[in-house]
């Protein structure tokens, strides 16, 4: 990948027609498709400007996760609708890391039960659903009711926030951990730690290539942190309360 030298001295934001743009000196930031980079949230615009301001002599776009998230939302290169992304997240639930427990290693299974079961229970209690774990390679069955409740919850967010959720789920392979982090039930570090529980168990027994595993851990933390921040900065007043069934 060709490197890009820093070509600007300072960053700033400006308001335009109710949206916020980022400037690099006197130039307006644009997306890969050449569109003006605009966001609805002033705090998000400030975070993006800070991301660009933190670049040194060489611009390292691989670590500019908020910028990448915004670029994808603005350009939408895959033509995703909000419904497409919600369906993807809901379908990912059946492959959630926290639902797959070891059937070959009792020590690992105990760790998974102690660490993951409380988070699965939180998910069930918070969204009033039931989840089934598995100890086989066959994915557990997710009920239609659970899918509907999760779909309604995610659809209550705007397009950008839903993309943030999808980015987080893809990063740590867990809908449950991503939602728990978004709800501040667990920290970003703890969410990543739980997503890597089996890997960390193997490392504790067989050792690791220190620089590689550390890089992987910090990269996941950065990606998930960006995803959750993106959700929060694009969500103005989203709350969730499951509706009671109407009684005649």
UniProtKB/TrEMBL annotation:
Main location: mitochondrion
Cellular compartment(s): Mitochondrion
Superkingdom to which the source organism belongs: Eukaryota
Any GO BP: mitochondrial proton-transporting ATP synthase complex assembly
GO cellular component: a single term: mitochondrion
Keyword Oxidoreductase assigned: no
Presence of keyword Chaperone: yes
Keywords: Chaperone, Mitochondrion, Transit peptide
Gene3D superfamilies: ATP12 ATPase (1.10.3580.10), ATP12-like (3.30.2180.10)
Entry similarity comment: Belongs to the ATP12 family.
PANTHER family: ATP SYNTHASE MITOCHONDRIAL F1 COMPLEX ASSEMBLY FACTOR 2, ATP SYNTHASE MITOCHONDRIAL F1 COMPLEX ASSEMBLY FACTOR 2/ATP12 PROTEIN, MITOCHONDRIAL PRECURSOR
Protein's name in the database: ATP synthase F1 complex assembly factor
Source organism per UniProt: Apis cerana cerana
């Amino acid at each position: 990948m060709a490197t890009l030298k820093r070509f600007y001295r300072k960053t700033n934001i400006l308001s335009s027609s109710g949206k916020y743009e980022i400037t690099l000196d006197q130039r307006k930031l644009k997306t890969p498709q050449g569109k003006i980079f605009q966001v609805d949230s002033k705090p998000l615009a400030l975070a993006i400007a800070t991301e660009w301001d933190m670049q040194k002599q060489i611009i390292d776009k691989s670590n500019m996760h908020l910028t990448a998230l915004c670029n994808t939302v603005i350009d939408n290169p895959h033509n995703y609708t909000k419904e497409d992304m919600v369906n993807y997240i809901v379908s990912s639930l059946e492959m959630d890391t926290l639902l797959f427990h070891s059937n070959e290693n009792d020590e690992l299974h105990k760790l998974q039960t102690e660490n993951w079961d409380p988070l699965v229970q939180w998910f069930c209690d918070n969204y009033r659903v039931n989840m089934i774990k598995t100890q086989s390679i066959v994915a557990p069955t997710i009920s239609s009711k659970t899918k509907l409740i999760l779909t309604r919850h995610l659809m209550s967010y705007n397009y950008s926030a839903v993309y943030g959720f999808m980015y987080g789920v893809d990063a740590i392979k867990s809908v449950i951990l991503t939602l728990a982090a978004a709800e501040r039930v667990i920290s970003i570090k703890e969410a990543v730690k739980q997503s890597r529980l089996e890997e960390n168990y193997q490392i504790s027994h067989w050792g690791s290539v220190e620089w590689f595993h550390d890089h992987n851990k910090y990269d996941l933390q950065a990606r998930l942190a960006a995803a959750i921040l993106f959700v929060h900065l694009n969500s103005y007043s989203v709350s969730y309360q499951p509706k009671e069934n109407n009684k005649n």
